[in-house]
Amino acid sequence: MLSLAKTVVFDPALLHKYNQPLPRYTSYPPATEMTEGFNPRDFEAAIAVGNYKQTPLSLYCHIPFCESACYFCGCNTVITRHKKVADPYLDYLERNIAQVAQRVKHRRVNQLHWGGGTPSYLTKAQVERLWNVLHEHFEFEPEAEISIEVNPRDLDREYVHFLKDLGFKRVSFGLQDFNLKVQAAVNRMQPEAMLFDAMGWLREAGFESVNVDLIYGLPYQTLATFRDTIEKTLRLDPDRIAVFNFAYVPWLKPVQKKHIDPGTLPGPAEKLEIFHMTIDRLTAADYQFIGMDHFAKAGDELAIAQSQGQLHRNFQGYTTLPESDLLGFGMTSISMLHDVYAQNHKGLRDFYKAMDVNELPLERGVVLSQDDILRRAVIMELMCQFELSKSAIEEKYHLNFDQDFDDYFARERQDLKVLEADGLVHLTPNHIEVLPAGRLLIRNIAAVFDPYLRNRTIRQFSQSV
Questions:
Q1: Which element (helix H / strand E) includes 132?
Q2: Cα-based distances in Å from 312 to 240, 321, 336
Q3: DSSP of 54-114, one letter per residue?
Q4: Which of 120, 163, 244, 354 could form a cystine bridge with 361, CB 3.0-4.6 A?
Q5: Burial class, 323, CB count within 10 angstroms (exposed 0-12 / middle 13-18 / buried 19+)
Q6: Nearest CA to 297 among 244, 243, 245, 237?
């Protein structure tokens, strides 16, 4: 196993050469492969297989509401200040939870996450209502990982302590940028004092882990202003930091076309300088580069799991938990089972309409082939561990009975040799090792094993750097 601490090499020429739109590979195949011709019976059959295997469960609840639109956001949201809209949504969400739970037999939950939108949009009474519904329908492991996304603008000390006392253990919130001009440009005003108050309350309440999100490439950002944001973020002392590349995709997000002037965005060269500075500063402050855009303190369980080759990845991001079946509840949420992915209706009305006739509110999905499952294992191993044992893959997927790893992936091996020539990977008879210069380009390396890319419109993805 490689020593992963502080082993990231920033090579501007390579980053420029390989920077292209690619999937983020929170799943393989990516969610773009789901189609509307999906048969809900395949979803039910996959749950039944998980029941037989007693696969642990990971649950996701989508709360779509936000009081205002953040112009950088790519999530499926409902913008309204009228909190009463949450009550009928919770009615339908409760029914969605019940209809799936009745298909699940004798399985325990080891992970729960509330995302959005803005889960902290809910009142305390609404939060407690949803919490109780989930615990009525599912049995949770005592040490289950339970997390929630919050908006600092919603928080006060009482609300924070309420979440902790209820049972949430982990929290994530968006900083994006401390600079007020940048905040104004993306319609996300949250003064410095507000952010430090929020972190103070979270620490006081005793949450196990606090993650913060930053975004580079936003309007009016410069190397100097984002350096100031990084220094203030380090003063906050979060356990984990995600540093996302802003995806300016006005052809997909009308709000960006309307509100963001491309002339205010940092140019490609400065954007790379910002990312370079961020990596250098965070790793110097003892945050370990986990992969893609995620950093964790050296003693964090993500860093430890990666060093032990036990890191995993799903639609909820990097996790230390073993492979689970992910069940998504609410509009637009995605379920990720062993050989089936399925997504609920993205529109609120369509979601309600399906529930009104007691149908599973599935809009689209995909059934994975054995080739998909094999390629998923290869991609996730590279994404999470930065290395792969060919013999381990051969043994787990029985390749050695008819052909070995190199035979099966003969075309991909030729592509990997090109990456090896550029110093991104090192190939041995039994291993693929991602080199320090390749770790920032892990999506490019994973994409070698993704044949769907040949038929995709790549403009629907964000840039790899």
A1: helix 124-137
A2: 16, 7, 14
A3: T--EEEEEEE-EESS--TT--S--EE-S-GGGHHHHHHHHHHHHHHHHTT--S-EEEEEEE
A4: 354
A5: middle
A6: 237
37 has which bridge partners?
none
Residue pointed to by tokens 């006739």: 357
135 Cβ neighbours under 8 A, 6+ residues apart: none
| N residues, the chain | 465
Cβ–Cβ under 8 Å, residues 108 and 223: no
DSSP helix/strand/coil, 413 = helix
pLDDT tens digits, 288-309: 999 888 999 988 888 888 888 8
Nearest to 256 by CA among 77, 70, 81: 70
Pair of tokens at residue 356: 């009104």
Residue 364's SS3 state is strand
Tell me the C-alpha distance between 440 and 464, whole Å: 8
For tokens 């509307």, name the residue.
36
Bridge partners (DSSP) of residue 426 are 433
Q: Which residues, 6+ apart, have CB-to-CB distance to 151 below 8 Å?
A: 66, 118, 120, 121, 173, 174
3-state secondary structure of 428: coil
Distance CA 319, CA 339 (A): 20
Question: Phi, psi (5° rounding) for residue 297?
Answer: -60, 150
Residue 8: how many other CB atoms lie within 10 Å = 17
Tens digit of pLDDT for each residue in 317-365?
Answer: 788 887 899 999 999 999 999 999 999 999 999 999 999 999 999 999 9
The Cβ of residue 375 has, within 10 Å, a number of other Cβ atoms equal to 22
328, 335 contact by CB (below 8 A): yes
Residues 199 and 441: their CA atoms lie apart, in Å, by: 32
pLDDT tier at 381 (50, 70, 90 boundaries)? very high
Contact present, 281 and 234 (Cβ < 8 Å): yes
Find out whether 148 and 119 touch, Cβ atoms under 8 Å: yes
Question: What's the burial of 35, exposed, middle or buried (CB within 10 Å: 0-12/13-18/19+)?
Answer: exposed
